[in-house]
Design brief:
By secondary structure, the protein is of the alpha+beta class. 53% of the residues lie in helices and 13% in strands. The chain has 5 helices and 4 strands. It is globular, with a radius of gyration of 20 Å.
């Protein structure tokens, strides 16, 4: 039977399961059909750090967290993958930087008309991308960056639909 837990339930499970002190608050949970991304916020570097050293300090904090928590993250991910039937990826935010440790790369098939294929071929010919597949991924990232507000509003609306659906009657098929 497929897991039907809502994103709120997944967030609550991870919040309860993660060791205290890993993050400054509850982790951000980003979920799609294949993957649950757990992104925690690390404490800001303490003390007065010159700007030219700050990036290196944040990088060091992120790497230390990644190494020191690896075994526990693997254990928690395995439990979550059994429970929610989705892969788990991990990342952290520290300061203005977000670093993902692991993520899935999922193939997506689509049909494109000639004019759409020509866009991808132009990106390949210009050296922006190595292949049509890379060009399509580049286009998706570009659209995501430039329509962030619209996509956020759409995700909020879908989140509302998810809450309403989960509060409705339990329908077994």
């Amino acid at each position: 039977m497929e897991s039907v837990e809502s994103t709120a339930q997944v967030r609550a499970w991870f919040t309860g399961r993660l060791p205290e002190g890993w993050f400054t608050g509850a982790p951000e949970i980003v979920r799609d059909r294949e993957e649950i991304a757990v992104i925690g916020t690390l404490p800001e570097p303490s003390g007065e750090t010159p700007e030219e050293e700050r990036a290196a300090l944040v990088e060091g904090l992120v790497l230390r967290f990644r190494e020191e928590t690896r075994e526990r993250r693997i254990e928690i991910a395995r439990e979550a993958e059994r429970r929610f039937r989705q892969k788990v990826s991990w990342g952290v935010s520290c300061g203005d930087q977000t670093v993902m440790f692991t993520t899935l790369s999922v193939p997506v098939m689509t049909r494109l008309r000639q004019s759409e294929r020509q866009v991808l071929d132009t990106l390949v010919a210009a050296g922006v991308a190595r292949s049509r597949s890379d060009a399509l991924a580049w286009c998706v990232r570009l659209v995501g960056r430039h329509t962030d507000t619209w996509l956020t509003d759409l995700r909020d609306a879908l989140s509302h639909v998810d809450r309403v659906r989960s509060s409705g009657p339990d329908v077994q098929s």
